[in-house]
Design a protein that fits this description.
Low-confidence stretches: none
Radius of gyration: 20 Å
Number of strands: 25
CATH superfamily of the domain at 159-276: Jelly Rolls
Oligomer: single chain
Number of helices: 1
Shape: globular
Helix content: under 10%
CATH topology of the domain at 159-276: Jelly Rolls
Distance between the termini: 43 Å
Mean pLDDT: 97
CATH architecture of the domain at 159-276: Sandwich
Structural class: mainly beta
C-alpha cells in the first residue's frame, strides 16, 4: 500500500531515522589535467554552485568539484557511489578513493571534519559521477560517541538477482538490513554505534533494478514500527502496489506489507529503499550539526570553533589523492586497503 507520494528533486524527503538523502548525477566533461573540468566555469556561483549548468555542478569546489573540508556532529553519512570516484580525507587522518558501487559509512559522533572531492581523472573522456548521500540520525546516547570510518567495497556488498531463469529479473543490492525470504543477502555489519546496529532498529538501505517486464515483491519489514520509503529515480514506468508511477517519486509504503513492483516500461526501473524504526527523539539541526536541543547545537558550534574537532592534517581544504584511479582506503592508525 502506498501511503504518500512526492516528486523527487535534488534533496529527497525522508522519515525518521533518516535525515537527508541527495542524489547527485553529474555528467562531468573531460578533466583539465588538474582534476577539474576542461570547460568554462563562467555563469556559475563559484563556491556554491548547485546550478546543474550543462549537466554538472562544482558544488563548493573552486577548481575540483566537490565538498572541501567541513564539520559534522551527531549523525552518520552513508555515501553510495554508483559511477565515478570520490576522494575522502578527514580529521582522523583517514583517506580513501572509492566508487563503482563502493559505500563509505562515516559515524560523525562527537565531531569530525571531512572533505569529499570529485576528481576528474580522465582527460580523454567524460567523467560521469552518480552517488547517493544519506544522513542517518544517531540517538541521544550515541551522539557523542567516538567518530568511526568504514568502507564497504562493492565486491563485499551482498547482491542477488531474482526472477525466472532466462527472463526479466530484478537485481537487489543490500547496503544495510535484512530482507526476509531472499537468500544470500546477509548484510555487512554497520558501525558499532550506529542506530543500524541497535537490536530492533530494522534499518535498511537497498537498491533495486527491475528489467523491462520484471516483477518483484519486496518482502515486508521485520519490525512492526518500521517506516519505509521507496524512491523511484530511474526508468520510464513503474507500478507499485497496483498504482502506476509515471515520474520520479518518493513513495511512502506500508512496511508491514509486501510491496509488489512491476516494470511495464521499456527501460530498467531503479529504486532506492530506506527503512527503519524511528528513533523518536527531538531533532535540532543547523547546517552540519544534528543534535536533540538548540543548546546542544550552540555547544557544537563552540566546540568546533575551539577544537576544530582535532584539526586538519592535510595541506589543502580539498585534497585529491593523485592521478592513479586505484580505489583504496587508509584508516586511522595507518592500516591500508587497496581495491584496484
Amino acid at each position: 500500500m502506498i501511503l504518500a507520494r512526492a516528486p523527487l528533486g535534488m534533496h529527497w524527503p525522508t522519515l525518521d531515522p533518516f535525515l537527508f538523502c541527495a542524489h547527485h548525477d553529474d555528467h562531468y566533461p573531460k578533466g583539465d589535467g588538474r582534476f577539474g573540468p576542461a570547460a568554462s566555469l563562467a555563469g556559475r556561483q563559484m563556491g556554491s554552485d548547485f546550478s546543474g549548468l550543462n549537466g554538472w555542478s562544482m558544488y563548493h569546489g573552486q577548481q575540483v568539484p566537490g565538498f572541501p573540508a567541513h564539520p559534522h556532529r551527531g549523525f552518520e553519512t552513508v555515501t553510495l557511489v554508483r559511477t565515478g570516484r570520490i576522494d575522502h580525507s578527514d580529521s582522523l587522518g583517514a583517506a580513501a578513493r572509492f566508487g563503482g558501487g563502493d559505500v563509505q559509512w562515516l559515524t560523525a559522533g562527537s565531531g569530525i571534519v571531512h572533505a569529499e572531492m570529485f576528481p576528474l581523472l580522465l582527460e580523454d573522456a567524460e567523467n560521469p559521477l552518480e552517488l547517493f548521500q544519506i544522513w542517518l540520525n544517531l540517538p541521544a546516547r550515541s551522539k557523542m560517541c567516538a567518530p568511526y570510518f568504514s568502507m564497504f567495497w562493492a565486491d563485499t556488498i551482498p547482491r542477488g538477482r531474482f526472477g525466472p531463469e532466462g527472463g526479466p529479473g530484478t537485481e537487489v543490492v543490500v547496503v544495510a538490513g535484512q530482507l526476509p525470504g531472499l537468500d544470500g543477502l546477509t548484510p555487512l555489519a554497520p558501525p558499532p554505534d550506529s542506530w543500524a546496529s541497535q537490536e530492533g532498529a530494522d534499518v535498511g538501505i537497498f537498491t533495486l533494478k527491475l528489467d523491462p517486464g520484471a516483477q518483484f515483491t519486496l518482502p515486508p519489514a521485520a519490525g512492526p514500527q518500521t517506516l519505509r520509503v521507496a524512491y523511484f529515480f530511474a526508468g520510464d514506468a513503474l507500478t507499485a502496489a497496483g498504482q502506476a508511477v509515471a515520474e520520479p517519486s518518493a513513495l511512502q509504503v506500508e512496511a508491514s506489507q509486501p510491496l509488489l513492483l512491476t516494470n511495464p516500461g521499456q527501460q530498467p526501473a531503479e529504486l532506492l529503499v530506506l527503512q527503519g524504526r524511528p528513533i523518536g527523539e527531538p531533532v535540532a539541526r543547523h547546517g552540519p550539526f544534528v543534535m536533540n536541543t538548540e543548546a546542544e547545537i550552540r555547544t557544537a558550534f563552540a566546540d568546533y570553533q575551539r577544537t576544530r574537532f582535532g584539526g586538519w592534517p592535510w595541506d589543502s581544504e580539498g585534497p585529491v589523492h593523485g592521478s592513479d584511479a586505484t580505489r583504496f582506503a587508509r584508516h586511522p592508525g595507518g592500516a591500508e586497503e587497496r581495491r584496484g
